[in-house]
Write a structure and sequence with these properties.
This protein is α/β, with parallel strands linked by helices. It is built from 7 helices and 6 strands. It has one domain: Uracil-DNA glycosylase-like domain (Uracil-DNA Glycosylase, subunit E). α1 runs antiparallel to α4.
Length: about 190
């Protein structure tokens, strides 16, 4: 077995045993997709449906994100998908700052293991935690920001377009920016 595989196994075991926050739930999901991906997509938390399927973006929001990726000639299975929180949020309750502080350590370890060049952050909380605290979705979505060796872009959570149909068009525009970015900056 290779070292990277072993480190992912250890990380998954630690995540499964975690009881570090108020949202601790048996409904957990670490990741899905290509663990050597160039692109990492991060949502707030898995849904219970995604946990059951063992795949991030496995339901309606997944079909939407996969469709956006395919429009940019990006195979959805070539992307690493994860979340800021590993536990499904019961009843859609928002996580506290303490909850995210516990899980972000796991996310940082995933980031080091995958080493993506491009990170797409979905939703306000993820953007504010990973890009910058003053990130404002309506103003800053679709803009690229360098953090270390990776380029980050924030956009809306795919579930949000159910409440505001115009967000689907904004997400499409942001993913078109991803498609253009990939053409302009080939893999290093």
């Amino acid at each position: 077995m290779d070292d990277k595989f072993d480190r992912f196994v250890t990380l998954k075991e630690e995540m499964t045993a975690c009881r570090g926050c108020s949202k601790s739930s048996p409904h957990r999901l670490l990741d899905s997709g290509d663990r050597s991906a160039r692109i990492m997509i991060i949502s707030t938390a898995p849904t219970e449906e995604e946990v059951k399927k063992g795949e991030f973006f496995g339901g309606e929001r997944g079909r939407f994100v996969d469709g956006l990726l395919k429009l940019q000639n990006i195979a959805p299975e070539s992307v690493y998908k994860t979340a800021l929180l590993n536990c499904a949020l019961p009843g859609g309750k928002a996580p506290t700052a303490a909850d995210t502080d516990v899980c972000i350590r796991c996310l940082r370890r995933q980031f080091r293991l995958v080493s993506p060049e491009i990170v797409i952050c979905l939703g306000k909380l993820v953007c504010q935690k990973l890009i910058r605290p003053d990130f404002f979705l309506k103003r800053d979505h679709g803009k690229w920001e360098r953090k270390g060796d990776a380029m980050f872009m924030g956009t809306f959570d795919p579930g949000a377009f159910r409440y505001d149909k115009s967000l689907a068009d904004l997400m499409l525009s942001d993913f078109c920016s991803l498609g253009e970015y990939i053409k302009t900056y080939p893999p290093v």
